[in-house]
Design goal:
Blueprint: H1 2-12, H2 14-44, H3 47-50, E1 56-59, E2 73-74, H4 76-80, E3 87-101, E4 108-116, H5 132-135, E5 140-144, H6 154-159, E6 165-168, E7 171-179, E8 190-194, H7 195-201, E9 209-210, E10 212-217, H8 223-233, E11 239-242, H9 243-256, H10 259-289, H11 291-299, H12 304-341, H13 349-375, H14 379-382
Parallel strand pairs: 4-8, 5-7
Antiparallel strand pairs: 1-10, 1-11, 2-9, 3-4, 3-10, 5-8, 6-7
Helix pairs in contact: 1-12, 2-10, 2-12, 2-13, 10-13, 12-13
Length: 383
C-alpha cells in the first residue's frame, strides 16, 4: 500500500517527476565522471612502472613522480646492490622528455623516452620478447601504440609496412617496432630505445647518472626484506622502493601534491549537493501541494511514521529512475573520453555499486529534509 501510494504521488505530476529525474541523472553523471577520471589518474600514473619487470627500484632521493624525474643517482649503486643476498640482476634505465616531430605534419610535441640496455626480461614490450635485434641498430626506437594521435598515426603506417622515419631532438630516428603502455596525466606518449641511442640523442647526459635502477631478486626472496637490507648497505644518495611502494608513491603524489586530486573530490561533493538540492525541492513541493491529504491521513489516525515512509519510498523510486539513465550516459562519456585521451577510463562493478549507494543516500537525505514540512501538517490548523 505504501509503495503504491508513493508511486502514484510521484507520477501524478509527470513534469515534476521528469525534473527530479533529470537532476538526479546530472548528479549521477557528474559523480561517475569525476570518480572515473580520478581512478584513471591513479591507474595511469603507474602504467610505465607496471611495465618495468623489477622487484625493487632505485631512485634519486629528490624523486617525486615519473614526469618530474629529472635527477638521478650514481650507477655505482647498482653494482653495490649485488652485495645484498637475494639480488639476482640489475639494469640501469634512463628517461627524459624530448621533442618528437610528427612524421607527417612536422609539428613537434614533447614525449617521454626510456633508454636501457635492450636485454630481455626487464621491460614488458608485449609480443617483443627480445628487443635487442630491434633496438641495437643506430637511431632505432619502439613506439607506444597508445600515444596520443598528435604524434602521428605511427602504428597504422608501421603495420602497413611503411618505414616511419622522423626526428627527436634534431636527430633522425626510425620506428622499428611497437609496444603498448599508455598515456597518463603527465605523459602523452613514449618511445623505448637502447641506452647507446639514448646518449646519442642526449650527448649532455652521463651514463653514470641513472634515473631508474631496476633490481630483480632470486626466487624465494621477500622484496620488503631485501629492500631493508639495501637501505642499510647503500648510501643515502639513493632511494630504495619495492614495486608496490612505487605505485603508492605515484598515487600519493597526484592525490596530495597536485590540485587534480582535490578537484576530482570536489566534483563528487558538488554532484551530491546538486542532487540533494534538486530532489529536496521536488519532494518539498510535492509535500506542500498535498499537505491537506497528508493532514487528512493524520486526522484519521495514521502516524507520522507512516507518512514519512511514503516520502522515503518516493526517494528510493527517484534514485532508481535517476541512476539507470545516469549510469548509461556515464558509460557513453567513458567511451568518448577514452577514445579522445587514451586514458584508462573503465566502469567497474565496485564504482557502480558505490555511486548507486551514494544516489540512494542523496535521495533519502533530500526526503528527510522534506519531512520537516510534513511533520508540521496539523489537521486542526489546515482545516
Amino acid at each position: 500500500m505504501i509503495f503504491a501510494l508513493a508511486w502514484r504521488q510521484l507520477f501524478h505530476q509527470q513534469a515534476r517527476l521528469l525534473a527530479a529525474i533529470a537532476g538526479i541523472v546530472f548528479a549521477v553523471v557528474l559523480i561517475m565522471v569525476q570518480l572515473g577520471f580520478q581512478a584513471a589518474l591513479y591507474e595511469s600514473s603507474t602504467l610505465h612502472y607496471d611495465h618495468m619487470m623489477a622487484d625493487i627500484v632505485l631512485l634519486s632521493p629528490q624523486y617525486e613522480a615519473i614526469m618530474y624525474n629529472n635527477s638521478g643517482f650514481p650507477l655505482q649503486r647498482l653494482n653495490q646492490a649485488y652485495a645484498v643476498d637475494g639480488v639476482s640482476s640489475t639494469l640501469a634505465m634512463y628517461g627524459s622528455f624530448v621533442a618528437w616531430k610528427n612524421p607527417w605534419t612536422h609539428k613537434e610535441r614533447t614525449m617521454y623516452m626510456f633508454g636501457f640496455n635492450p636485454i630481455p626480461g626487464f621491460f614488458d614490450l608485449g609480443d617483443i620478447k627480445d628487443p635487442g635485434p630491434l633496438l641495437r641498430r643506430n637511431d632505432s626506437v619502439l613506439f607506444d601504440v597508445l600515444s596520443r594521435k598528435e604524434y602521428g598515426d605511427v602504428p597504422s603506417a608501421f603495420r602497413a609496412g611503411q618505414r616511419v622515419v622522423t626526428e627527436m631532438v634534431g636527430h633522425r630516428v626510425e620506428v622499428t617496432g611497437l609496444f603498448s603502455a599508455g598515456t597518463s596525466f603527465g605523459i602523452d606518449g613514449a618511445v623505448v630505445m637502447s641506452d647507446a641511442n639514448f646518449f646519442r640523442l642526449m650527448p649532455g647526459r652521463s651514463p653514470e647518472v641513472v634515473n631508474f635502477g631496476l633490481i630483480k631478486l632470486k626466487p624465494g626472496y621477500d622484496p620488503d626484506q631485501v629492500r631493508a637490507q639495501l637501505e642499510k648497505v647503500l648510501p643515502n644518495d639513493v632511494r630504495v622502493l619495492t614495486h608496490s611502494q612505487i605505485d603508492a608513491n605515484e598515487r600519493e603524489f597526484w592525490s596530495s601534491n597536485t590540485p587534480i586530486g582535490f578537484i576530482f573530490a570536489l566534483g563528487v561533493g558538488l554532484g551530491l549537493v546538486v542532487g540533494i538540492i534538486v530532489v529536496y525541492q521536488i519532494l518539498y513541493t510535492d509535500v506542500s501541494d498535498h499537505l491537506q491529504e497528508y493532514a487528512t491521513l493524520k486526522a484519521i489516525g495514521y502516524k507520522d511514521s507512516f507518512l514519512f515512509t511514503i516520502i522515503i519510498w518516493e526517494s528510493l523510486i527517484l534514485s532508481v529512475f535517476g541512476y539507470i539513465p545516469g549510469f548509461l550516459i556515464s558509460l557513453l562519456i567513458y567511451r568518448v573520453a577514452t577514445n579522445a585521451t587514451f586514458l584508462p577510463l573503465r566502469m567497474t562493478a565496485e564504482r557502480g555499486v558505490v555511486v548507486y549507494l551514494l544516489t540512494i543516500a542523496m535521495c533519502v537525505v533530500s526526503g528527510a529534509l522534506a519531512l520537516r514540512r510534513l511533520s508540521k501538517a496539523d489537521p486542526a490548523e489546515i482545516f
